[in-house]
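TASK: fixed-backbone design
INPUT:
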């Protein structure tokens, strides 16, 4: 599914903070959406958790810094970190190359009933955000 030129694959679930999660068996992979990576180009630093860390619902799991801002990723469910993409320590900007095939971490946790959006809901939500931004800046063109 698409919003403008941005893909939202149907095999993932989405959060409103530009994060995707992809359940694979009992592991949930976590990454940044294509729209999110386009907004955060130029990731200059990333703080990753350690394997074995337990992260409570709503606590920050990952923090990353771009040229413009510092952003945090949290999940709406408690989880245990089971894998970390160590390549991101050396070059956090690789997220921008292929956001749906580069996950940041893998976690175990009960993501069911945690308010995650499917691709259709994500397309509607992000489409609405883009429309509001266009409306907001329409007079500046």
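OUTPUT:
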């Amino acid at each position: 599914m698409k919003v403008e030129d941005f893909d939202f694959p149907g095999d993932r679930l989405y959060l409103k903070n530009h994060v995707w999660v992809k359940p694979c068996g009992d592991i949930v992979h976590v990454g940044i959406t294509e729209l999110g990576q386009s907004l955060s180009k130029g990731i200059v630093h990333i703080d990753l958790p350690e394997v074995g860390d337990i992260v409570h619902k709503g606590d920050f799991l990952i923090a990353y810094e771009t040229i413009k801002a510092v952003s945090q990723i949290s999940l709406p469910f408690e989880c245990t970190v089971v894998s970390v993409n160590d390549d991101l320590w050396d070059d956090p900007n690789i997220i921008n190359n292929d956001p749906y095939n580069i996950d940041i971490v893998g976690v175990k946790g009960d993501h069911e009933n945690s308010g995650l959006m499917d691709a259709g809901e994500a397309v509607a939500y992000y489409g609405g955000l883009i429309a509001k931004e266009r409306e907001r800046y329409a007079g500046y063109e």
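COMMENT: The first strand starts at residue 2 and ends at 3.
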